[in-house]
Amino acid sequence: MVPAKVPCLSNTPARVATASVLNLLRTVCPELVRGDGETTLVCCSLSQLIALRLSVALSGTVLSRCPACARNFANLYCNNICSPDQSLFTNVTRIVNRTTVLGKPQLAVVEYQCFYGQDFADASFASCRGVRLPATGGYAIDTMCGRYGAKLCTTQRWLDFQGDKNNGLAPLQIDFQLVPNGTQPGDAVVPLHGQAWRCDQALSAEEQPCSCQDCAESCPPVIAPSDPPPPFRLGNADGALVLCGLLFGLLALIFITALLCRCRRSKGDPTPQPVPARAASCSARLSDASHYVLARAFHRWGTLVAGHPVAVLAVAAVLAGGLSAGLVTLRLTTDPVELWSAPGSRARQEKAFYDQHFGPFFRTNQVIVTAPGRPSSRYESVVLGAKNFSGVMSEEVLRAVLELQEQLAATTAWAPVAGREVTLSDVCYAPLNPAEPGLGDCCVNSVTQYFQNNSTRLAMTATQTDGKETGTVDWHDHLIYCVNSPLSFKDITALELSCMAEYGGPVFPYIAFGGYPDLEYTEAEALIVTYSLNNFPPDDPRHEWVLSWERRFLEVVGDFQRTHGPNLSVAFMAERSLEDEINRTTGEDIPIFAISYLVVFAYIALALGEYTTWRRVLVESKVTLALGGIAVVLGAVFASMGFLALLGLPSSLVILEVVPFLVLAVGADNIFIFVQEYQQSQREPGETREQHIGRVLAQVAPSMLLCSLSEVICFLLGALSSMPAVRTFALTAAVAIAFDFLLQMSGFVALVALDARRQEAARFDLCCCCGMGKGGPAGPGARLLRPLLRRYYTPLLLHRLARPVVVRGARPLWSCRPRTGGDALGEEGDGHRGALADGGWVPPQDSYMLQYFAALNQYLAVGVPTYFVTTGGYNFSSPNGTNGICSSAGCAADSLTHTIHFLPALPLPRSYLAIPATSWVDDFLDWLNPTSRCCRIHQFGNLTGKFCPSTNDLSCLGGRCLNTTRRPTVEEFERFLPWFLHDRPTLQCAKGGCPSMGPVRVPVQGCPAGVGAGARCLCQGASAAVTLPGRVTYVYYEQYLTVVAEGVITLALCLVPTFCVSFLLLGMDLRSSAATLVTIAMILVDTVGAMALWDIPYNAVALINLVAAVGISVEFVSHVTCAFAHSTQPGRVARAAEATVNMGSKVVAGVAMTNLPGIVVLAFAKAQLIQIFFFRLNLIITLVGLAHGLIFLPVLLSYVGKTPWGCVGTG
């Protein structure tokens, strides 16, 4: 790879250095210069010194960031080549005859021994073993220790690799012999004991020691962030749980004590004296007055609507239809970022800043190949020793993977809008040739890239001799070498193959392999192929190109999976897979939702009727009225969505699925309450049908108003949430419930009037043109639920022995804490799947992505990238600005990169960074270093003063950009930076900045949500002006920083109006309002506890359902409370019994029995999102709400409810 020039054998004494040699010696080997330099002796010529400078420059590219290491490494070769004492510690072991170009015979040295003192060699190695290679996140030793890498490298192995002529750089074989201290090897050999600089030493007063990132001895003590406060515990138990238990026990003790005292008083005075009736208080009079005003207003309104039903229906239909027309402007938001991340949130702002300045993050397409059942094997390498190879690491599997990549490279996809064929090179991420990429320039990471995706190289074999052993080397040997030295341009086997990928970059084994134990990559259980594609904004025509190619990618890999299915397990995904699967599952589950709503509609249609005889079934049926009521509910939903769409508010699939369910529950409850009350009410003498409808409406409408107003205000307050999806849902629900109440008070009342007119005329339902003639029903219709509640349920529930048991047993499920999505991610380490769940979607059981996520979680050891971006206005060009970012020698101790470097040093779980960050500033400074060949200037010719690449020699002699190691001035910074950004890395200069024009991208090991908060806290201590730590999934994970507090605040805000509206509309009845608030709060607490028992994670989707649960709970609770407050029974127990019988039957029929059939149908949906967050959670909400509304609330009211003024006793 570099010209191989070997020295000639010479036994002459050392010579006095000439002026030209001395000048160059001061630059390359300053330790060999004696005194003033006039008496300096050397054993090398000027040409040898020039070649040595070239060799030192190559190593200086990666070692110059640590001056002590670079000097020590250069001194090794300076002593070997130029030391005047060379003959004392070297021993030539092999020479060959050669003839010069002038025909002069010479003896060329091709192998020699070199004796070093153990201390000197160890000190030199110690100064270099911590030097970082920022471009890879690894160590420079990784490139200088061959197959051993940094982890297994020792002083001897390090030197052996330098002296191995097969490493592509050494011109001859050097056998390094390390002599222990105090021993002599004999034969007049004196081991070299030179000076070795420690990495924390400065070479001179003008220079700096190695930085903390490259030298652990230079690091200040790492002060870990303060630990979070320990969890509150009492002994070994959860402290909060113990306190809740004690509080519950105290309340139970107070309740039992009060009950016993009351019982003792009743036994001591078995004939209590009547309590004189008390005058009604102000609040009681206000309650009666408010109820009278509302009842009278609704009575007049109902009578008016019932008298003009057709006109009212026409107006309601026109208004609802007009607002529903706004649906044509409806925008559905499917981007999880837009759904769950607030526009003003920090993560959202950081993402917007990143996208604006760097463009969207590149797209990932990935294939994970495993070979279950295939046996492993053991390979005996002549050069590298024995290694185990897993079943997937076989030539057959490698060729299959290579075949897949060749198909993908050759495939084309049709982009219909652009009207052209799209190839991989049109859309791939090509870091080294972004302007005009070819197929070979595309960034594809896979195991076959160690062979440059060339089947011929994969099949190569060669005869290899290692010492006395001779054998054959093949792809096994090359692979073993490359996984330990991925940056090598030439392996040490006879194959002499490069480890670099076809596109020119390295393939790090932790990206190409999965499921390996302890860095034993050859034992990996999975091969990972990753295609990185450019990402474009949606309005860019190239966005269609990349979508089209990804569609073709999925087809090709799908065919590969079916072809190799018997032998290989293939999991895959494309960047577009998420959206594709959402659309597919949504379409497939539409019939499930349709069936769910049809079941609900059928139940309402059948349950509304009250049947007296079989012959009157067609007359007494309420199918038409039920369909009209459903139309009213759907009209309210469509009108609300259309109204908000006209205002520019977008919607989402979650809203489309939840809001109809919520409004249907509220609307159906009101339908049953109104219709059943009308059926059970008898018309008074002289009362017209219209007046009868008005009177019934006056009886039930205040309760409907109480519930609807509570829910509307509740959801309006819920709209204060910062999460866009929660805010949009709350606004849509509030407007929909408001419209539903208005339409029911108008359109549905008109429908009831028309249906009553039809039934009185004995006309058939669904066919009003036909009938059975005049004649009313023989008596009241058959009823099941109400008699059951009156005869059996209520007496049992309110029995004097049962009530204490109910109160004592009403223990909330506060002992169960649901896991948040962040908890799940921390347990599973599955960031990608967690991000999807955060985005409101979990793949169904039949999705190919489920297999991919399982393989990703099991095999992939690298998480998504983390990057740190400085905001605009930071001055990089000043020395202080440069030092505030970089991490090499001379950089600020609190620089951004130094600060990030401390993360992996912190104990888990504070940090999950696998390797330190890389900064372009560090590469730029290394590129400017005068000891390298990177930054040079043409000295003559047409290009004088222009940039001279490292591959050009003649016109660049002496044309270094900087003559000394220092920070560039502002003018130099601005002049040289464009050169750096356009310089492609080469073997002579590996620090070219062409592929580094993007952000910092650092592989992260098993990233949970918490790493974002830690990165933010860390950056606050960095010296850079402002930093924006970010990951692709921060916008999803950010919700877990606030979702608990957000949920508590949102639900608390939703509870406030239920109490306030109840307090006002019930005439300041504090007891009944408090009972309502307590019961709804218990429903929420028990729902959250049940979520933990049924493995329902708490995230933004769950929060939306919990906000909806408040609205449904109001239906279960407020109607019963309102009926209790307006009951005229003499005591609390009697009032609770009447409310339970009269209103409980309607709540069961209207809310519980309306929801349950539809919810049960959702259990058959394919999408796990629907199964978890709609079937499970809504079933919990309905059952818990029903239990509290019909069991706990009546008993609570029987104890704490207000007694009517003027009554005797308390019941």
TL;DR of this structure?
It contains 40 helices and 26 strands.
Structure, explained:
The chain is of the alpha+beta class and 1211 residues long. The longest helix is centred in the middle third of the chain and has 37 residues, at 724-760. Residues 822-840, 997-1027 and 1205-1211 have low confidence and may be disordered. It is elongated, with a radius of gyration of 41 Å. The protein has 40 helices and 26 strands.
Question: What coarse outline follows from CA principal-axis ratios?
Answer: elongated
Query: Can you give the mean pLDDT?
Result: 81
Q: How much of the polypeptide forms β-strand, as a percent range?
A: 5-15%
Q: Supply the helix-strand structural class.
A: alpha+beta
Share of residues in helices = 40-55%
Unreliable residue stretches: 822-840, 997-1027, 1205-1211
Main pleated-sheet profile: 5 strands, antiparallel
Total helices: the number is 40
Q: What does the radius of gyration come to?
A: 41 Å
Topology, element by element:
Blueprint: E1 15-16, H1 19-28, E2 41-42, H2 46-63, H3 67-82, H4 86-89, E3 90-99, E4 105-117, H5 118-128, E5 132-133, E6 138-139, H6 149-152, H7 155-162, E7 173-179, E8 233-234, E9 237-238, H8 239-268, H9 282-307, H10 309-324, H11 336-340, H12 346-358, E10 363-370, E11 377-381, E12 385-389, H13 395-410, E13 413-415, E14 420-422, H14 424-427, E15 444-445, H15 455-458, E16 462-466, E17 469-473, H16 475-484, H17 509-512, E18 513-514, E19 526-533, H18 541-563, E20 569-573, H19 577-607, H20 617-620, H21 623-646, H22 653-680, H23 689-718, H24 724-760, E21 763-764, E22 767-771, H25 785-797, H26 802-809, H27 821-828, H28 831-838, H29 848-859, E23 866-870, H30 879-883, H31 896-905, H32 920-928, E24 936-937, E25 947-948, H33 970-982, H34 1010-1019, E26 1027-1031, H35 1034-1037, H36 1039-1065, H37 1070-1093, H38 1100-1125, H39 1132-1162, H40 1168-1200
Parallel strand pairs: 4-7
Antiparallel strand pairs: 1-2, 3-4, 5-6, 8-9, 10-19, 10-20, 11-12, 13-14, 15-19, 16-17, 18-19, 21-22, 23-26, 24-25
Helix pairs in contact: 1-2, 2-3, 3-5, 9-23, 9-24, 10-21, 10-24, 19-21, 19-39, 21-22, 21-24, 22-23, 22-24, 22-38, 22-39, 23-24, 23-36, 23-38, 24-38, 25-39, 26-40, 27-28, 36-37, 36-38, 37-38, 37-40, 38-39, 38-40, 39-40
Catalytic activity: cholesterol(in) = cholesterol(out)
Family: Belongs to the patched family.
Membrane topology: Multi-pass membrane protein
